[in-house]
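Researcher: If convenient, please comment on what follows.
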Amino acid sequence: MGFATLDYLIVILYLGGVTVFGILISGRQRSTGDYFLGGHKIPWWAVMFSVVATETSTLTFISIPAVAYGGNLAFLQITFGYIIGRTVVSFVFLPKYFQGKLSTAYQFLGNRFGDSMRNITSTTFMVTRLLADGVRLFASAIPIAIILRLAGIKTSDLNIYLISIFIISVVTLVYTFLGGIKAVVWMDVVQMGIYIGGAFLAAGIILTRLPDGWGGVFHIAQGAEKLKLLDLGLGMHFRDFIAEPYTFFVALFGGAVFSIASHGTDQLIVQRLLTTRNLRSSQKALIGSGIVVFFQFALFLFIGLLLFGFYNGQTPGQLGLATTDEIFAKFIVEELPTGLSGLIIAAILAAAMSTLSSSINSLASATTMDIYKPYWGKANSPEKDLRVSRMITIGWGVIITGSAFVFAFLQLQSSGERPAVVEIGLGIASYTYGGLLGVFLLAILSKKLQRKDAIIGFFAGLIALIFLVKGLTIAWPLYTLVGSLIVIIIGHVSYFIHRVKYRPTYPPA
């Protein structure tokens, strides 16, 4: 057992092969339409798998098993809300985007409320994506860090994580820079196949290593209340009810609203949906992705239960680990036969690189199409736009890597129990998704509101949510719901105030 020379060779060959294949499959780009939208020629099923690979990535492979190991199966409840939310986006948001022939989601807001609203929301997306992807990239470094420790590298945990983050970033940036969205999507398809296959393989091997098989795991998990799937929370006080993220109704409604925001207003996902041939293809890709995510989350939670049985429920500290997120990686590098460890680590890297490449490309598209081109690139030739897009792509690759460095420092230097990384990543996104969703709903549902109403509502939602979350203990799935409601209410209050203020008055007859 342990990580052998063959395993290292497999990982190295995978990294090199992915880079070459990503470049070859992308073809040639002649314009930003090719670079960022794939010429609208990517099939719906490829986009569906790309969406799934992008949104779950290493956080699924590493951290979802940790959620089940440290908790139970209640996390799966949120996927029911995800399916509902994606259905709403498919029939409310996507028709608007395809009618406008848009390159980014925020161009829709620009058409409705003006350039300033487009700039504000696009910048908010960039900041959110930067923070959330710093967390994701840190999570992707966990297995590489363990490998480097096993290789005998004698340095601090922080230095090992920094080296790991750098390796993943450089390899991913190469094919993203050269291949654009087409390379990103098709590599997502390949990489999702690799990491789902790796997950099934790992689950099968854990089962064979358990003396009593699934029956033994079931007995241990049942005794530790790990099999709880539905938690209605009906006997809880309201204050406790809204603070618990995995009660059924909080997960359902919070998950639905979160999914509407993440898949209807986040350029990371919207960009993929705009690469399909038509609206119907985009709708099939999005709704289908919700169903795939349900089964994917179930698979990784199941792995968490198997690991709990394998390690007899020991804490991370008892196993010599820094966080619960390292549980699965520990099993992979220490317990799997030679060769299989390398294959599954390659699967984890596949998950990591799919998300990182997607983030870099979507950030570059928003920066180019929402910020650069409207102000400095109106007279550019397609060739110049393409060159600028690639330079911006490099810039975002460097910035995200720096964000992951900062998060690694904060996470590894903190004291006390650390939450699962997946919950941190989702929590960060939830803060700003409320503001984004609220202003998109104002644009879609209200024709009377003006630009200043939308801007006032948007910032009121962001600021109020920060204070509300500090003053009230609410679960992260509700951040988006609360934030979007505040934006809608304040936006309408602003409209009625200035309508009354400027209503003409007439002298009595």
